[in-house]
Amino acid sequence: MIKLLAIDMDGTCLNDKKLISDVTMQALLEASEAGIMVVPTTGRALTCLPHQIQDQAFYRYVISSNGAVVTDTLTGETIYEAKIPYRKAADFLRQCDDNIKVGISAHVNHKFILQGHWLRMLGRLGYGKDAEYSEYSGNLAERIEKEKSDVEEIQLFYFSDTAEQQLKELLSKDDFCLKAFSAHYVEMYDRKASKGKALAALAEYLKIPKENIACIGDEENDMSMFDAAGMKFAMGNATQELKEKADIVVPTNNEQGVAVAIEKYMMPDRA
Questions:
Q1: Backbone angles phi, psi at 195, to 5 degrees
Q2: Phi and psi dihedrals of 183, rounded to 5?
Q3: pTM exceeds 0.90 for this model
Q4: So what's the pLDDT on residue 127?
Q5: Are strands 231-234 and 213-217 parallel, antiparallel or unpaired?
């Protein structure tokens, strides 16, 4: 019997239009009503959760910033955190600013903060309402150092092969964090941060055994959840490696794959 469902957002709950379909939303509500604890598990900062779920009551706990923080949204309590020390983050961002043409952003105190108005504009174009609570900042390194705020996640955006190569060279000289490269950006987070470690910490806090936990995802950063869950789903649009390691592959994010996972495999009696 599944008691906790850790569910990725982008590429999983959200379709390619960055929206949660009515069918998927209904399945999430039904899962909650059936006693399954639904836990949004995302690379996003807490304040930038999909706008469609921000006022929903079907979840209480959120794993955000790729597992850097687990938050009880009812009490505001932090259940788990693994952050980059602010001095290390500020020093690295300063090096990027001085030597490489990249867009700089970070998750700090649950906020998505972007250095420069143009980068924030790009974010709002790409994510619409979901980016409404993002913040503009001047020099982000200076802000982090001034506030003495440890960093949940750093995101650097590059728009040329030269910048990408320079960034990889800089990161190769200092192995202070984990990093995941995508087509035009890299995500960086503390070595103790992962969705899997965060999920395991939440499960221990709630005293829920692994066999009663399910997870659903589509990307490499969802792989670590498989170590903490007894039932593992991959979306039809997931990476091949994730599909190969999943117990079950469901339809894509455009074909209500999340609803299939919940209704067919977690609540078969109701289905």
A1: -60, -35
A2: -60, -40
A3: yes
A4: 62
A5: parallel
